[in-house]
Amino acid sequence: MKALFLSHQHALDGGGGGQQQCSREYQQVLRSAGFDLLDVTFDTDRTWRTRLRRKFRPEPYANLIPQDFLARVDVALREHNPSFVFCNLYNFIPLGPVLREMMPKTTKLVILSHGLASVDEVHASRIAREPFAAMHLPKVSDSWIGRMIQSEARGLPAFDHVFCLAEFEVEICRWLGARSVSWWPRTLSAEHFLPWKPKGDRIGIVGTLDHPPNLEGVELFCAALHSLEIGPLRLRLVTRSRKIATDLQSRYPFVDVLGPLEEREAVKAEASTWNAFIHPIFCHAMGCSTKVATGLEWGLPVLTSTAGLRGYECHDGALPTFNNPVDLAGAAIEMLDIVRATEARQEILNTVRLSASLADVAGRMRADLGL
Hints:
Elements lengths: L1 E7 L9 H15 L3 E7 L5 H9 L11 H13 L3 E5 L7 H7 L5 E5 L4 H11 L3 H4 L7 H14 L5 E4 L3 H8 L5 E3 L18 E5 L5 H15 L7 E5 L3 H10 L3 E5 L4 H8 L4 E4 L10 H8 L4 E3 L20 H10 L3 H16 L4 H11 L3
Parallel strand pairs: 1-2, 1-3, 3-4, 4-5, 5-6, 7-8, 7-10, 8-9, 10-11
Helix pairs in contact: 1-15, 5-7, 9-13
């Protein structure tokens, strides 16, 4: 089946973060499902007129896609007559009605959501009053959040189907008017397990900390550890968010700031010495959690919450989750016991080996699209 794949070109770059990882996986799943994809990409509109609009009249989800992009989509529609048009990322939400008008009625319009931006904006607004967040996060106005939700409610009903990366966002999209919506689980690979050589006193976190749910999570986790008897425990932070990490280190004596560790092998060498990989998050953030996949695919003992495992399905190797900071901190301290950590690692190895394959997810996507 012929299909257009509309995307920001940066989302299809090699390497990169969660956006690139999920975009590549969307394409892999679609190809496995039998789609012949033609990429139609754009780069952010940086013309001086658009930059002025962004500065003086900002709009949610708007002023990113250049005007000539729709003309190129129209050409591709007429030349290739695709059965489906897949829109990668939330940038396309406000364009849904415009695209629907351009397309033949027989062509299905589908958005591949990486999460609704309003989910994180509401969270940022909620924690903005907290001292640990006020110095690191820009303020988000109520009117901005309202306009963002309004844009989502106007755009989502134009799509024939919405694919989400986490189960909880299915109901939010339905509430916002999506006519047909489902989610698919991330796939995991058992080919990247690290040679585990725990030092005995280390746990660690990998990833950006300035994302509001992550910032709140690491602060609450550190505060909970600080209230407990932690013995020799060291919390190792591998992150580019140096300002936040340094702030945590100044207030919590068990924190070690390692910086980003630019070389991938250096990150792996460090992580292989940890008794546990910690993903502290206590609210549902937009999309799925790509950070937790790093620890899972490395085969480390992983401690997180239900929100931290959003976007993944655990079958026989079901993982325990810890949904408040004190419970997560207590579990982290238990991981200093090498016997307990080894048992937890075996649960992770089983979970990854039993996770959904590309073929499994492709079959679900075909069914959801009525194929």
